[in-house]
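Holo model, zinc ion. Inputs:
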Amino acid sequence: MRCRKFFKKAVSLVIIAAVCIGGFGAFKPTVSARAESISEMKSRVSGLESQKSSLQSKIDSLQNDIDKKQEYLDTINSYISTVENKIMTCESILASYQSEIDELNRDIEKKEEELKANKELFQRRIRSIYMSGNNNSLLFLMGSDEYANYLSMSEFTENLAKYDNALMTKINNAMDDINKSIEEKNKAKKEQEAVKEELATERANLASKQQEASAAVSSVQKSKADLQKELKQVESSISSLESSIDKAYEAARRAAMEAQQGGGSVGNYSGKGFAWPLPGYTMITSPFGFRYDPYYLCYRGHNGIDISGGGVAGKPIIASASGTVTVAEFNNGGYGNYVVISHGFMNGSLVTTHYGHMMSYAVSVGQSVKQGDIIGYVGTTGASTGYHLHFEVRLNNSPVNPFGYVSY
Ligand SMILES: [Zn+2]
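Output:
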């Protein structure tokens, strides 16, 4: 059971080794000096990612604003169409009033003609009476002989005048009635026109509000479009950085392969020996070689030495010798925060020192370090049961007993 865990871990360590190899390329000092290191690029990516999420949240809030402003604009537009409908109703009422008034005016004209015709008829009758001097023609004119028979000449003319007067009064009364109607219609029309004017004012107010609201919508839309453009730029920076990181890893991996095969791109180690990596602490809690593993709870090989002591948490770890940082990252295989320094070739073998379980590391891939430089701080990250430094020395990536190189 316990050793299944161990086998699983053994597989992980193979992966770690692969990662280590991947880190070696940063050895080429000419490359690492000029190019941005992988961890620098990674930190730029994380900065850009936070910029991206802040832009996205700004864009979301602008969209929210646009939605609200659009809703307001829609409300105004619906008010406008209501008012326009009212205006149309008003206009149709006005038109019907006008046609009624026109009709009444025609009636008036007719009545006036009637009146005029009647006046002429009356005058003609009077003339006829005086010219003929008898009742016969009058009887004809009156159209009623029965009645006229009993009347004298003067009575007759008097009656005729009365009759005409009554007729004209009747026509005049009718005209008065029509004129009254016209007046009423005109009054109603005027009231309706006032209503229409009010509606037109309302329509104009709404139109200016509509203009403001639509300008507000497009201004926010423009801000949103600007931010989206910015977002696109950030996204493209992220993807180009990510591809640079991939390329850098690939280049590092290839350079490490070349170095493993004895390529001449890595120089010989020129420093003066190796320094103790954790100054002031000398307690070895786990030696190099086959031993009982307190984390994996089974016997297994130990690739390095564990250095600890009271109050060791957070104490500085130094570069054992000068060289180039090839790995500086959180290692998922169990090393926790992990740094590897390559020191170049010694007697034809590539020498690397490895530092695990750090609380944090203070260097980045590609960085040149001198012996004694602080590279990180003691922690208990990864597969660790307490604060200590796990320290390894490898020759061509094969772990060797560190005590062959360091002493305290
Ligand atoms: Zn260890």
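The first helix runs from residue 2 to 23. The pocket of zinc ion is lined by residues 286, 302, 304, 306, 390 (CB under 6 Å).
Archived with the compound record.
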